[in-house]
Amino acid sequence: MLEIDRKQVMAYRMVAHQLDRDCANEPALSVLDLGVQDPRPGTALSALAARLPNQPTGAGLVATWTFRGAPHLHRKSDLRALNAELWPLDDTDAAARLGNSCAQLTKAEMPALQAIRDTATAWRETDDGSVRTKGEISGAVTGRLPDDYSGWCRGCGSTHVLEQLLRLAGLAAGAVIAEQGPPVAFGMQSRWPGPPKTAKGTGRLLEAYLRLHGPATAAEAAGYLGTTAAATAAEWPDGLAEVQVGRRRSYLPESEIETLRSAPAPRLVRLLPPYDPFLQARDRLTLVAEKARHKEVWRILGNPGALLVDGEVAGVWRAKAGKSRLTVTVSPFQPIAAGRRKEVAAEAERVAAVRGATAVEVTYAAPLG
Known about the structure:
alpha+beta; 34% helix; five-stranded mixed β-sheet; globular; three-stranded mixed β-sheet
């Protein structure tokens, strides 16, 4: 069994995520194999800009609710296959992905997988060919579903289909995000097959996670899908090598072992946006070894971006947009040398270009204690 340390894992992930900008072909970026979370306009394109030598265009890409019910940017050509790959394997798997939303269905003796199928079918059946807001869709879908699929929502002051149930049904319904909003609005893909009869290709997603975020455990790979290792055990991919990282026994595709061994010590600066794929790995102690820093990088609401310096998360940043100027405020964990600040400024210009700003200003807060 290969034994490596955390620094070599981080060096490998720099290469796996193509943060060295060795790929100029936007659709070929490896992070698109799992999609890029896109909670706000410009977030996903900023993640692509951190990996491309040129500015991203977004051509051939489309966003919809996929992993864990969150909005992700994907290659449009991948969506049909992803529909089957992300479909739950059985009721146990579906229940895990629904999380707390499943308690109500369980109490009513409603099978979790059937609930997702019913919701996706209802969404498709209510399509009138127009772009509709989430609220409009929720209202139309709720009326077609059993009462036990709905609950009282304090936020909007009404009873409607359970939030996570609607989110997990989006891809199967053929919905794509037409307007990020707020409010978010969806259009529908034509000639869409609808909910799959059975899941197909779950193992490809697990393998893609291991390739991007490995070496990793089965629980971490399944957690990215929003489920458990037990629920996906039958789909665990072949062709994996065991890797010991400290006390953790992890896995990596055998095809990536040489890259893991030979990955050079990274020498780069990047401004990763909130929810960047690099930050989505489930092993946060690998990404940020100081646990006390986790609350600064990953917040319950409103994550900042992350400052990446030579393969380490070295601080966080936030941006404030004016009429044509973007102000980027960097809060480093330790003081940043003048030479590296020039690199930060260059990265901030990339972020500004993605957001349509013509000027950018970088300011520094005092190092976080």
